[in-house]
Specification:
about 250 residues, Arc Repressor Mutant, subunit A, Nonspecific Lipid-transfer Protein, Chain A, two-stranded antiparallel ribbon, 10 helices, 9 strands, globular, DNA binding, HTH_HxlR, Transcriptional regulator
């Protein structure tokens, strides 16, 4: 018979949970990787974390960014993540007075996990870049796929507008910082706009000429085309793994 100590812990979200509530619930294995899967392995969990990676969101906006998830499942995932200490809830100050969900410091650390998984998984020939991409996913992808050595010595501010979502990216020290924004940045060197973030992928990753992407995918650029080409050259996907038939 298996016995499990059921002590209680207070998470970073201020929620008290049983220590045995997560570790061992699926695998009964002390391995850290097994525990990570118990924390993050349920369907939609990683995507909920992804959409919160650039700042807090209301329930309605979070659900709108993940149209395939039901309100019930989203509520369950948010409750589980809060119990695990990966996110917290708070009320925005008046006049908004709305509840938002926000990652804890530990929750934000999962971006590193997503970056490793992203770089690893896109090496598969089965990866389909034409599937829908959320604006946040696009921004995080660029943070992941930037080549720091190519960006050495470059400082740049780039605005992105995908539908109603707007972001400002600041390139400095080989790193791409990204934040949501309400308005265009007055110091932006470049501004990209499109109905969908998928429109920029053929330019950033496919290395198709800008005029073709503007014509075929509806990408709009404000700023120097030479600077835009320098910016696009900073990003590259890892090489594909080609399986050898036996």
């Amino acid at each position: 018979m298996k016995f499990q100590k059921e002590t209680t812990i207070e998470t970073q979200a201020g929620h008290v949970a049983r220590q045995g509530e997560f570790h061992g619930r699926w695998y009964g294995d002390a391995c850290g990787a097994a525990f990570a899967m118990e924390l993050l392995g349920e369907r939609w969990t990683m995507l909920v974390l992804r959409e919160l990676m650039l700042g807090p969101l209301r329930f309605s906006r979070l659900r709108a960014s993940l149209p395939g998830i039901s309100a019930k499942v989203l509520t369950e995932r948010l409750e589980t993540l809060e119990s695990a200490g990966l996110l917290t809830r708070r009320m925005l100050p008046p006049p908004t007075s709305a509840q938002v969900y926000e990652l804890t410091e530990w929750g934000y650390e999962t971006e590193t996990i997503m970056q490793v998984l992203g770089r690893w998984s896109v090496r598969s020939m089965a990866h389909d870049p034409t599937l829908p991409l959320t604006p946040v996913s696009c921004m995080l992808s660029m943070r992941t796929m930037i080549h720091a050595d190519r960006a050495e010595g470059l400082d740049m501010v780039v605005d992105f507008a995908f539908g109603e979502e707007r972001f400002t990216a600041r390139l400095s020290g080989g790193q791409l910082g990204v934040a949501r924004s309400e308005h265009a940045s007055p110091d932006a060197d470049l501004s990209f706009a499109a109905a969908s973030p998928n429109a920029i992928l053929p330019y950033i990753y496919g290395k198709r000429p800008l005029d073709e992407v503007e014509r075929d995918f509806g990408l709009e650029l404000s700023g120097s085309r030479d600077i835009a080409d320098r910016f696009a050259a900073l990003f590259a996907l890892p090489s594909k793994v080609i399986s050898k038939s036996t």
